[in-house]
Design goal:
By secondary structure, the protein is α+β, with helices and mostly antiparallel strands. The protein is about 45% helix and about 20% strand. The protein starts with a strand and ends with a helix.
Length: about 100
């Protein structure tokens, strides 16, 4: 089985012609069931390559959005405005490239 990092920065594998993100597989094995279509596996430390069980949690899309919002809200208090502007512009570029 070949494992690689996809363009979004996740470990993935090919299985029966489908590309599967490994963090979802890890969570499904832990839960002993398939994830529902509305369930997202959130990386607590935001490191997409850290698929340790204690770094993963199942959330809804809304919960994931809120978690990411509060993270950025907190980071804005720690990061200088110049660096934050650069990160924001880079993120916008990445979104527009999709």
């Amino acid at each position: 089985m070949k494992i690689w990092i996809d363009r979004d920065g996740y470990y993935v594998k090919s299985f029966r012609g489908n590309i599967i993100r490994l963090h979802r597989t890890v969570m499904e094995k832990l839960l002993k069931r398939k994830l529902k279509s509305n369930e997202i596996v959130h990386h607590i430390d935001h490191n997409r390559l850290n698929n340790k069980i204690d770094n993963l949690m199942v959330v809804t899309a809304l919960e994931n959005k809120k978690l990411n919002y509060y993270l950025w809200k907190y980071l804005r208090t720690l990061i200088s405005p110049v660096i934050l502007k650069y990160i924001t512009l880079k993120a916008l570029e990445d979104i527009r490239d999709d």
